[in-house]
Amino acid sequence: MPAMNTDWKLNTPPESEVNVDADVLAMRAPLVRVHRNDEGTWSFDGPGRNPRPSKKTMLSAVVGAWPHVAALSDLDTGGAAVWSWKQHGWASEFKCECGSCEQPVAADIDRNSWPAELQPHSILSVEQVALSGQAPLTDIISTPGGIALLGPGDHRRSADLMTPIALANVIRRWPHTMQALRALKEGRGMRWNQQQLNWHEYVLA
């Protein structure tokens, strides 16, 4: 990704080296906490205590694989943010002076945060290159045959390019998809807008 990419939201160059929780990188845990140390280096973690075993990659690769990270353009050196499943967005960690503040906790999604209208065990079809992070997730479509999550390109995919994933694991993989999946109607699609960092609905041709 070139440094002058006009869609780039973060104030750190896309080619910067970052640390990613090994479980997050292996898709075993959701990306729910982001921290920048005193030197400004980014770290991306799953639920639980830190530090955790991590691997190095480029910031552009993280943003491509986990688009909700692009919303952290205001995260300064030394700062940290936690994904809130209930608020459907990032919440800043802060130092509590009074001792009674409720700090955001980096956690996996639980039943209390799960929307009642979504069936966690229902199976969705996911394009493998998007699931692995090799290509960005760009579209969610609902057809009579079911719901599919796709990378760039038209909507035609052969079966060997897709893999079945439970809805709960789709949302754990891409936390920013929850609201789109709640609003998705049959015969419609949702496309991720990189500039506005939101989903746009459209009618399937």
UniProtKB/TrEMBL annotation:
Q: What is this protein identified as?
A: Uncharacterized protein
Q: Which organism is it from?
A: Saccharopolyspora shandongensis
